[in-house]
Design a protein that fits this description.
alpha+beta, Helix Hairpins, OB fold (Dihydrolipoamide Acetyltransferase, E2P), 25 helices, 22 strands, binds 2-(butylsulfanyl)adenosine
Amino acid sequence: MSDHSARILALRKEINQHNTHYYVTDNPVITDAEYDRLMLELQHLESMHPELVTPTSPTQRVGGSPAKNFAELKHAQPMLSLANAFSEEDVSDFIRKVIDGLQTEFVEFVAEPKLDGISLSLRYEQGELVSAATRGDGITGEDVTTNVRTIKSIPLILMGDHWPEIVEIRGEIVIRVADFKQLNQHRLKEGEKLFANPRNAAAGSVRQLDSRITAQRPLSFIPWGSGACSVAIASTHADEMARIAQWGFAVSDEMKVLHDIAGLMHYYKDLAQRRHRLPYEIDGIVYKVNYVNLQQALGSTSKAPRWAIAHKFPAQEESTVVLEIEASVGRTGAITPVANLQPVTVGGVVVSRATLHNQDEVERKDVRPGDTVIIRRAGDVIPEVVLVIKDKRPEEAQPWRMPERCPRCNSLVERLENESAHRCIGGLYCDAQREGALSHYASRGAMNIEGLGDKLIAQLVDKGLVRTPADLYQLSVSQLSVIERMGEKSATNVINAIEQTKTTSLARFIYGLGIGQVGEVTAKQLVAHFGDLASLMAADEMTLQEVRDVGPIVAKSIAHFFEQPHNREVIQAIIDAGVHWPKPERVRSEGVFAHKTVVLTGKLEEMTRRAAQEAIEERGGRVIGSVSEKTDLLVAGAAAGSKLLRAQKLNVKVIDEHTLMQMLSE
Ligand code: IVH
């Protein structure tokens, strides 16, 4: 018996330490399986000795039976709110009042993130968690102790031993952005209602009547201060937070001690910029007087302390009305539902459109023209419709349907299997896709035609002056000059810019063709493999898959592109217009393989193909993917097939791997 109780205590201590490593310092020292074994052993021993089970045992974090509702819990010290500042002026008013109140010029401040979560007060007596309460009205909160016990970043027993006999730790319950995404993805899969944002999810989870549900939610706790304590924790806020961290809490590592308005504003701007890269959401900065005795000297109003202020970031979410849902045709033919909105300012920017991504999304969120919606604009991300406020839906609001025909060219709209997007099948018959193809051809990574922007392209297409990239080379200054707001000077500049693209690289040209799935990197790999355009255009899907990183889907897309007579015509017309790509200078002109074009085939035993290719290139050779008259050497490994036959037919010299190794060692 005493053996067991000693083991139980040891296990609890060990598990608590691992919890801190895992949930607080993000630094686990044992595997999950090892952790589970410790937990199982503890559960087993406790089931043999129910009299030894305490509410602070880690086994009690799993949650208990549902409560009817929450009991009220009066705060030993009120949980006040914070006054808000929205501008630099508001902040300097705050500083002025602090300085006047304290009658001193030099005051030390701390700045820290304002966490966007649910505030919570944790009460520890003799180092043990005894209760946890939400803020409520600030005087009385809800007793959420059972739920809070399930939150792993909250120690049930404080670490170390230098804590006051009674201490209240206050802070914010949050859900990390990454955890939130996972949570919503899971809910989507299960067909459950999605949470609008991490704060709502955190609030809903803490206030669950069934703590077993809370236990499954990825809640984290981040302290920002303290409440009633039997003795003061420290003489400054910064030291207080450092001590709280020693007791096993994850405090924010963004806190800074600062001295003047310039420092505070610099901190604000820096964090406002980095806000979207933090692991959790924040909605502003809190500035606090650092010294606790000065805080006390300033005191509080009935609502908020005079020694602290919240400098809020512009809101990221606003409500507005959906005027209509438009099917917008993208440059690849993908049709995206876009909500046209009653304009509203979000995060300091007027937003009048928000993406709805695809038809499934419209259905899932059930967005209808006329609906009042919450939209969200986080950083540079495209504004999104978060949810519909169903209570405000007009009676006549009808569900939206994807049109059956393309709004730009009237071609049929189809949805491929396994794809979430609908597409216009019009291809280059569709002006939207024509504009897309041209804009891609002119883009920086492709031909980089300065001055040929989307607006100009749209006008050129609209006036019928340009249909394919090849037509660009037939444009004249006088044709361009008739375009709206196009002076002769800028027209000449554009024509010159187009002229300059006649000398380019093959990789840029291939990328510029806008073949589905072929980005800049793939284009380069295609060039490295095939060496010239003719070989690439002649390659079948199997051959294409020999190229690095090219799988069946990419190969199919490339082969399909070059099969289209229309595409071949456009390519020929571009080349006829004078577009060419000088062969790059060989990097090396010495070595056993100097000036030799080599093809590798079959299975190599001694080295990977990639390594063989690199070794040959280092010695001046060029490795390409297919055999032609121009090939100097074929290296045939085991089980070589069609390439070997072709080489023999074309009288190309063939060597085996053994000979290759000899040449490489020369
Ligand atoms: S200090 C006396 N610091 O914001 C009140 N609060 O709008 C002292 N909050 O109720 C609060 N991050 O729930 C403080 N770093 C932070 C905070 C923070 C978030 C919450 C807190 C408070 C609310 C006021």
